């Protein structure tokens, strides 16, 4: 029988259980995918801890790449033998093989390896919707990207630079500063030793940035608002440091008629056409070399608990994959 990581209760990494699972034939509209690689993402820890509640027991993981082994009735999006990759629900990517709605799958170009595909889909599609949909970055924009050495950060910094933006990135250590600088950041701020809001003002001549992409949350939220130019866009897309407390909307007017949004990939890719459009943009950016994807950590799938420990301890950089 195939194996998968399952959670039967919420908690620390120790609740991730390596279990045998029964896999039925794909239902109508589903495809069976045998994973060659699975992506690790910070949102996985939210599902594990219960910050984002899911019905238990449950699978976990939102991203993978592999080969289609079977399809259910009515499937037209993929066929047996296709190389595919995906990101988004339903949960269950931490598995050797799984069934998944076929409309969530994208055919992976031959030029992109399975490991790259698994490493880039959630983070890459996130960068795609952030930069091309939520706020469409234009040449000449100054942008602030928090956690610039993280998975989404490295992709977003390179992509924003390729679009002609002035890219300001924040990091938490000198090592990560060098990494961010090598991946598109024009200016790097170590927020553990510097006031990032003041540095942003200095860099932009007092004006502030057009947009802030903030996946950190509680620790950076107010400083992010203070880094924006008038009528700038605050994009809060994650909360690695904890949830953002309730916001008094009058702050947005006091700080310059700011825009604030809390987007999700699931909303931006709910329609198949939108998913395919963003996927095409991502695949083109990666295959052109404008947005290289670096897999910096690899773990055996059964060792997912250790991968979670390292992720939460901020010991990882770039993308991390789990290998079945």
List keywords for this structure.
single chain, 324 residues, alpha/beta, Quinone Oxidoreductase, Chain A, domain 1, Rossmann fold, 6-stranded parallel sheet
Please describe what this structure looks like:
By secondary structure, this protein is α/β, with parallel strands linked by helices. The protein folds into 2 domains: 177 residues, Quinone Oxidoreductase, Chain A, domain 1; 124 residues, 3-Layer(aba) Sandwich (Rossmann fold), CATH 3.40.50. The chain contains 10 helices and 16 strands. The strands form 3 sheets. Strands 3, 5, 6, 7, 8, 15 and 16 form a 7-stranded mixed beta sheet that branches. Strands 11-10-9-12-13-14 form a 6-stranded parallel beta sheet, sandwiched between helices. Strands 2-1-4 form a 3-stranded antiparallel beta sheet, with no helix packed on it. β12, α6 and β13 form a beta-alpha-beta unit. α2 packs across α3. The two termini are 14 Å apart.
In short:
The strands form three sheets. Strands 3, 5, 6, 7, 8, 15 and 16 form a seven-stranded mixed β-sheet that branches.
Question: What overall geometry do the principal axes of the alpha carbons give?
Answer: globular
Give the biggest sheet.
Answer: 7 strands, mixed
CATH architecture of the largest domain: Alpha-Beta Complex
CATH superfamily annotation of the largest domain? Medium-chain alcohol dehydrogenases, catalytic domain
Approximately what portion of the residues adopt beta-strand conformation? Answer: 25-35%
CATH class label of the largest domain: Alpha Beta
CATH fold node name of the largest domain: Quinone Oxidoreductase, Chain A, domain 1
- From the alpha carbons, calculate the radius of gyration and give it in angstroms: 20 Å
Q: Kindly report the average pLDDT value.
A: 95
Q: List how many beta strands DSSP finds.
A: 16
Order of helices and strands: EEEHEEEEEHEHEHEHEHEHEHHEHE
How many domains, in number, for the residues?
2
Protein name: Quinone oxidoreductase
InterPro entries: ADH-like_C, ADH-like_N, ER, GroES-like_sf, NAD(P)-bd_dom_sf, QOR-like, Quin_OxRdtase/zeta-crystal_CS
Keywords: NADP, Oxidoreductase
Domain Enoyl reductase (ER): 11-322
């Amino acid at each position: 029988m195939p194996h998968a990581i399952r959670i039967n209760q919420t908690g620390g990494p120790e609740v991730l259980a390596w279990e045998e699972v029964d896999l039925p034939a794909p239902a109508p509209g589903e495809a069976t995918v045998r994973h060659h690689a699975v992506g690790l993402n910070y949102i996985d820890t939210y599902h594990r801890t219960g910050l984002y509640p899911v019905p238990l027991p449950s699978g976990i993981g939102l991203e993978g790449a592999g080969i289609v082994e079977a399809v259910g009735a009515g499937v037209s999006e993929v066929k047996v033998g296709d190389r595919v990759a995906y990101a988004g629900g339903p949960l269950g990517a931490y598995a050797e093989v799984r069934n998944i709605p076929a409309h969530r799958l994208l055919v992976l170009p031959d030029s992109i390896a399975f490991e790259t595909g698994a490493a880039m889909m959630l983070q890459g599609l996130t960068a795609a919707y952030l930069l091309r949909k939520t706020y469409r970055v234009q040449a000449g924009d100054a942008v602030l990207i928090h956690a610039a050495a993280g998975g989404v950060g490295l992709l977003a910094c390179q992509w924003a630079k390729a679009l002609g933006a002035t890219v300001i990135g924040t990091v938490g250590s000198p090592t990560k500063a060098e990494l961010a600088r090598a991946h598109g950041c024009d200016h790097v701020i170590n927020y553990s030793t510097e006031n990032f809001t003041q540095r942003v003002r200095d860099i932009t001549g007092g004006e502030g940035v057009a947009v802030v992409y903030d996946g950190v949350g509680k620790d950076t939220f107010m400083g992010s608002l203070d880094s924006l130019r008038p009528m700038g866009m605050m994009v809060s897309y994650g909360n690695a440091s904890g949830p953002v407390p309730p916001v008094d909307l009058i702050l947005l007017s006091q700080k310059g008629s700011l825009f604030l949004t809390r987007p999700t990939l699931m909303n931006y890719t709910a329609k198949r056409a939108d998913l395919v459009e963003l996927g095409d943009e991502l695949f083109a950016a990666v295959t052109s070399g404008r947005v290289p994807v670096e897999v910096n950590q690899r773990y055996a799938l059964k060792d997912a608990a250790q991968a979670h420990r390292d992720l939460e301890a901020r010991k990882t950089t770039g993308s991390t994959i789990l290998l079945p």
